[in-house]
Write a structure and sequence with these properties.
About 75% of the residues lie in helices and about 0% in strands. The protein is mainly α. The chain has one domain. It is a multi-pass membrane protein.
């Protein structure tokens, strides 16, 4: 009896840990991008030199390199976790609708829990991409006296770089991806 409980506990930990881990990593990366965005917002209305914008652009490059390195390391985990969650949500929905007499509270609650876990994972992971593009609006508000080639390079970098976690580059977890998964 005790062994079966331990096996169930162990299985649940193995099943839920990757999603929790990816959510925590995404929250950390989002907080780094939020700090970077706050640094850009704090310069609004202040006189800045081109050397300052160069250091800001280099910081952005370092942050994006960290995100890309983590994406390379965790690509398998992201792919397997999201696809596993989508599979189990679809399987649970199939089991609910295939046999109308077998509908019970456990299956419905289990499906809702799986769907909640999937949506939480995808929305928190997509925030990395959303916050990486948030500073662009403030960069457009840089006054003409402060505008320099470094600001233009930073704008180009933030527009052209795909800063997001991905599932082995098969898909990038962006807000659009999150909305398409939530329509599932």
């Amino acid at each position: 009896m005790l062994i079966s409980y331990l096996l169930v506990l162990w299985g649940n930990m193995i099943f839920y840990y990757p999603g929790i881990f990816l959510t925590c990593v995404s929250l950390y990366l989002t907080s780094i991008m939020d700090q970077f965005n706050a640094k850009i917002i704090s310069t609004q209305g202040k006189m800045t030199k081109p050397s300052y914008w160069k250091s800001i652009r280099e910081d952005y490059g370092c942050i994006t390199n960290i995100i890309r390195s983590l994406d390379d390391l965790m690509g398998y985990l992201t792919l397997s976790t999201i696809l596993n969650n989508i599979f189990f949500v679809c399987f649970q929905l199939y089991s609910i609708f295939s046999e109308p007499y077998q509908r019970n509270i456990y299956t419905v609650c289990s499906t809702l829990l799986m769907l909640l876990q999937l949506l939480t994972l995808v929305f928190f992971t997509s925030e990395v991409n959303t916050t990486s593009r948030a500073a662009t609006a403030f960069l457009y508000k840089v006054t003409s006296t402060d505008f320099c080639t470094e600001v233009q390079r930073l704008i180009d970098q933030s527009h052209n770089d795909e800063v997001a976690l991905s599932g082995l580059k098969f898909f990038y977890v962006t807000r659009e991806f999150a909305l398409s998964v939530s329509i599932l």
